[in-house]
Design goal:
The protein is an alpha/beta fold. The protein is built from nine helices and eight strands. It binds adenosine monophosphate (AMP) and manganese (II) ion (3 copies). Adenosine monophosphate is lined by residues 25, 50, 76, 83, 142-144, 159-160, 163, 168, 259.
Length: 285
């Protein structure tokens, strides 16, 4: 049992293992994200940008001694025709297999951006690729950059409408992008010494049976953990994902999936607590 003194000395650990910076579709520079995480009490942070580790190039964690930075990435893949995300945690960002894989993903992103832009141009929009490239400012281009373009042009009122009308499932911007297969992206993560986590399982809108199939395929490909907490979520969802995690003997991860300040449901360091009975992904770090 913890003594009273232990309880005082041992700080509360908050692991936010899923966040985004300006290296992909987040709005804070990596250093600003780190400061915000520290201010919100995060003790362990992973910046997991979409298909890039560029955030780590100039990230200096000495300014926030209370926060341990664990390098990470969120890689895109497909499963049964859906876009699926796998978070790689505690990776070596300089590993050559990972670096080569990221190069392929970057090319795929660029080609997809060209396709999305061509489709929007057919709908009468003016030079979207050039505008979106400017908005991305060197970052990996994602659909949120197109959403920003559509809002800025007054074509839609907000991001939600941009996805509903132009970028979401079945819309012009929903280019069937063949990312590298799940086996490959997990292989890169493992080669880089990392842990592969199936990100935000509830986002894929799968039935329980199909979600289990996805998780089983993920395990066959070498996946090790399930992100059972993504931001603020219901008790029912946490319980369901904890059961799945337990049944399949996966480790458990958690994070905010923070992108930008001002979204009360997705703030860095703020998310539903991981249940005490699961095996956290950081257990062996
Ligand atoms: P991409 O990586 O280019 O496929 O874009 C996916 C990203 O778009 C996600 O990581 C979210 O940040 C964002 N996103 C997806 N769906 C929506 C939505 N309905 N509203 C706002 N942002 C969304
Ligand atoms: Mn995103
Ligand atoms: Mn994601
Ligand atoms: Mn994410």
């Amino acid at each position: 049992m913890l003594s009273r003194q232990d309880a005082i000395i041992r700080p509360i650990m908050i692991f936010d293992l899923h966040t985004h910076s300006t290296a992909s579709d987040g709005s804070l520079a990596p250093q600003e994200l780190l400061s915000r995480a520290a201010a919100n009490g995060v003790t362990c942070l992973s910046v997991t940008d979409h298909d890039t580790v560029d955030a780590y190039a100039n990230l200096d964690d000495s300014s926030c001694p209370g926060v341990t930075v664990v390098p990470g990435i969120e890689l895109s893949t497909n499963w049964a025709g859906r876009n699926i995300h796998v978070v790689g945690l505690n990776i070596d960002p300089s590993n050559s297999d990972l670096v080569n894989g990221i190069r392929k993903q970057k090319l795929a992103r660029l080609q997809r951006a060209e396709k999305i832009a061509a489709r929007l141009e057919k709908k009468g929009m003016d030079n979207p690729l050039e505008e979106v490239t400017k908005l991305a400012n060197g970052a990996n281009i994602g659909r949120p950059h197109f959403a920003r373009y559509l809002v800025d042009k007054g074509i839609v009122t907000d991001f939600r409408q941009a996805f509903q009308k132009y970028l979401g499932n079945g819309k012009a911007g929903d280019v069937r992008q063949f990312w590298s297969p799940m086996e490959d992206i997990i292989e890169w993560i493992l080669a880089a010494g990392g842990t592969a986590v199936l990100a935000h399982p509830a986002h894929y809108k799968l039935t329980n049976t199909r979600l289990r199939l996805l998780a089983e395929d993920f395990i066959s490909a070498g996946g090790q953990a399930l992100e059972i907490v993504s931001g603020i979520q219901t008790k029912q969802l946490t319980a369901k994902l904890t059961r799945l995690c337990d049944d399949l003997q996966l480790m458990a991860s958690c994070g905010s999936d923070f992108h930008t300040p001002g979204n009360s449901w997705s703030e860095v360091g703020k998310f539903t607590r991981l249940p005490a009975n699961c095996r956290p992904v950081w257990e062996n770090w």
